[in-house]
Amino acid sequence: MSQPAYTLEFPRVTLTVSKTRNPAVTLLSAMIYALAVSVSRSPSALLLASILPAMMLKGFPPRYLARLNVMNAVMILTLALTWPDFSDGFRTGMIIALRVNMICVVLGGMLRPLGTGGMYEALCGLRVPEKLRVLVILTLRGIYTLRERYESAIISVRLRAPGLSGLMRLKVFACMMGMILLQSSARSENMTRAVKCRGGFAGFMQGGNSAMNARDWLCVSGTAVYAVMIAVMNLA
Amino acid sequence: MHISEGILSGGVLAVGWAGTVAGVSFGLKRTNPDRIIQTALISSAFFLASLVNVRIGPSSTHLTLLAPMGLILGQAVFPAVLVALLLQAVLFGFGGLAVLGANTVVMGVPALAVSMIFGRAVRVATGRGRVAVLSFMAGTLAVMMGAGIAGIMLWMTDADFAGAVKLLLVAHVPVAVIEGVVTAFLVMWLKKSAPEFLS
Amino acid sequence: MLEADRLSYHYADGHEALRGVSLRVDAGEKVALVGANGSGKSTLLLHIAGAVEVQSGRIAFNGREGSEILRAKVGLTFQNADDEILMPSVIEDVAFSLVASGMSPSTAHEQAGKILASLGISHLSQRPPHRLSGGEKRLVTFAGVLASEPEILALDEPTAGLDPRARRRVINFLRETDRAVLLATHDLDMALDVCARAVILSGGTVAAEGSLPGLFTDGAVLEANGLELPLRYSV
What we know:
heterotrimer, B: mainly alpha, Arp2/3 complex 21 kDa subunit ARPC3, two-stranded antiparallel ribbon, 7 helices, 2 strands, C: alpha/beta, Rossmann fold, 4-stranded antiparallel sheet, 35% helix, 26% strand, globular
């Protein structure tokens, strides 16, 4: 059987809310760590920064890391070949690859358990503007409701035009997208009516129940201290 | 054209975030609450479209669809891009958090620029040929602009990235052509089926 | 209780969806609204729920006009449940209108929990909506409208796409509720199980009106309006 013209690569998502810590704390801590590591260049700073991902590495899906490092290998080779000095480029690539691995392990370990509900809680906790929060919720909702439409459309094309190739493939993709865009717009009209009938946009403001307590602030402070230590090591 | 975590310098990350805050504030201010729902659902349609792996010859690609997003969402495109990238990072583990600001600028600025440069012209254009040419130009420009902005950020991080930047720009040329073609087909379809959608 | 008088409505593209429709629903009454596709059922429900502005005619609830009062007193569910399930979890979605009315989220969630329990779907409270079956989504939308304590339930095709068991749960819910129900449906057998009266719409006008089961045994009237005898009469 020939390769399909289109495939929808929808990754697995955690759907449950983590109850163990405040989602806003998790998101903030992850962001602080990512920023600190992003700007680290010295070996000692990177060594210190590697403590957290080392603790989280157990249980991290090895296939994801493997795929990530295949891409890193391409990046290292590209930098080595395009840098003015080969060895400098190679070293830069290696440092970047190390940073990428560390950040991805920590972000994956901290953020994926948040799930859809946890992410919204985090945005509420961080006082992200209301319009943006509503945009996040509804975009997420739209992704899951439209996913089936895309999958059905792709299957339909596969059955009705198995030999699709070249420009036709791009044209059909564009038509598929156009149809789904129009359906989304029509659905949004009904959703707007539903929101109005159910009391308006204020109904979205349900998150942020988890106000940051002393333990949460301690956690964020701890991450900040860790980040400062990494920064100091970097400057040393 | 996403930039991965761990590449950009602190200064460039800060510039990226500043640009994102400005762009998102501008976009949200211009989007009235009734349009938020439509913006969200259209964004989700684009998000899913970008997850579709389209086979091109022996390889395959994911399309960014920057130009169609800009032409359809207009000034609301910046917040939509931020939300899409945030969802990718938090839920799906693609991209990153620290570099979210920079990536939003890399994708949002071209989409907004295309909307401003080509939006009106595409809306008022008559004749399939003219519509196709304008949309194709919008699609290719958006991708090359995005690659250009990413290149500038890399160069600002370290001038020695210059070689890699040149490679990045050259590598995006075929992608830009493909995106131009898809944008042209999409806009022609919309002009025929639902011209009010582009307004 | 609810009175619609000579409602007319046309969409932006000029399509006339309603042409002088008059309708009355009394407290506790269950009325079926039937008609072929495009007959104006959904548009009428949108008017009754205060979701669209009246262009011509009037709708009043206990003599009071205006979309605000209608939104407060009428609970509308859409044909496609995905159009109205908005939040990342079921409990948050059910609490939506409570929070919108000014209730604190924690109190709203408590209330929502009670409503879910009354429908026997407490186990779904933390479930994300896209993990729900069609029947479960439908029950969640019922819970969502019940939260605002409407006096009339306006339901647009509530059994569309449901399996027989889920359909039976919906029918049982509608039979047991003491609220007035205005039920737009193609499922004439369900209408017979739930409603005492029916209104047939055709081309945006009221073509026939009468008590059930009488109206649905008249094959000629049904056929003239794009409908067919319910299964229980046609077998």
